[in-house]
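Posting this for the archive.
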Amino acid sequence: MKNLVVLFLTFGLAVSARAQFNADKDPLITRSLSNQAINKVVARTSGGSITVTGVSEGEARLEVYVKPSGMNFGGASKSELQEKLKEDYDLVISSANNQLQVTAKSKNHVNWRRQLNISYKIYVPRNVVTDLGTSGGSISLSNLNGNQRFRTSGGSLQLSNLRGNIDGKTSGGSIRAENCTGGEMTLATSGGSLTLNDLKGTIQASTSGGSIRGSRISGELKAHTSGGSIHLDDLSCSLETSTSGGSVNVSVANPGKYLSASTSGGSVNVSIPGNRGLDLKVSGQSVKVSPLKNFNGTTDKRHVTGTVNGGGIPVNVSGSGNVNLSL
């Protein structure tokens, strides 16, 4: 009877220890970076997400999250994950010369049923540049001042409160960028939608398989998609936008040096202030334009060509369906 009680107690403690560690919420490894003065982050992982957040120096730290990604390795305890990580993966963490480098890759071919998903949450001072890459997860950046470069083949991109040049690409997810100011921003995805809000800079955004939505953008925007609709509001920028497979809706509050909007697979609706000098070139299956003032040119059911207020900003709008221009 006594041995049976001991057995139950041992089993209960093992179950309790396993239950207390939540691989989704609890880091397997935590390293303080509070005394490191980090100004660059280089991070690589093949099976997880990467998050970099700007914080005060005293809060700087690295958290490494490890969980099973295979079917037959579920419910692993913390000690089992530590053993598996040490056995099959090279995890390198270095913070020399004001640069944080963290990389994780398998030592040899690991059976997919026993592979690990290794993710990072990195908290560093705001003035940091990054070079990030993962083939199997999302990337999130927030509250950073500096040039940011990042790549993922299998996840989304989430960007907020960034100041500096931005170069981000994903082959398998959506992109959301908010409240970012930079010299140049390049955002590209082959398999998701784009959401762009409160951006300022020279922006190039493209997707091969999703819609584009944006608002309150200033500077210059070139936004293109091969497979979705486009909806842009409250713009104060030069604009070039097109789609091969959807409608286009654009509202301009303060036009920049040019405006070009087109689709080969839907209608186009463009609103632009009519008190500016404009060079109009509009075409579609059916073209409708609000009453034109100070216009010099030609109009018919499918075309409007001419100048408004003596000419100035080139406005080129075309569509395969209805085209509506409001001045």
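The longest strand covers residues 175-189. Residues 23-145 form one domain.
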